[in-house]
Amino acid sequence: MAPPELILYGRSYCHLCEDMERALRTLQDEFRFTVAVVDVDSDPALEARYGERVPVLVHAGKELCHYFLDPAAVRRYLTGVAGAALGTAAS
Question: Which residue ranges make up each domain of the chain?
């Protein structure tokens, strides 16, 4: 089964976005998932939707956290997602 793909909405030159992306890498030691980074400034609809409220971490339309990674919330969420089983970090 393919690992879930989390979407990180952010923008260039956003230190909070960089911090969240870096913090997500540590969770990949525990869970299998990929991260797609989407620049909200590349799409007027995304820019209008998120504005200054970045970074935002989403999976399957559900917002997991914004501004800062909430590791406990993401762990709880990924525990219930098929393909992200604990202890099966991607190679």
Answer: 5-79
pLDDT digits (tens, 9 = 90+) for 28-65: 999 999 999 999 999 999 999 999 999 999 999 999 99
What string of H, E and C letters represents the secondary structure of the chain?
CCCCEEEEEECCCCHHHHHHHHHHHHHCCCCCCEEEEEEHHHCHHHHHHHCCCCCEEEECCEEEEECCCCHHHHHHHHHCCCCCCCCCCCC
From the number of C-beta atoms within 10 Å of its C-beta (0-12, 13-18, 19+), residue 39 rates as: middle
Using CA atoms in the order 69, 72, 74, 79, what is the torsion angle rounded to 10 degrees? 160
Structure-token pair, residue 26: 């540590």
Class assignment of domain 5-79?
alpha beta
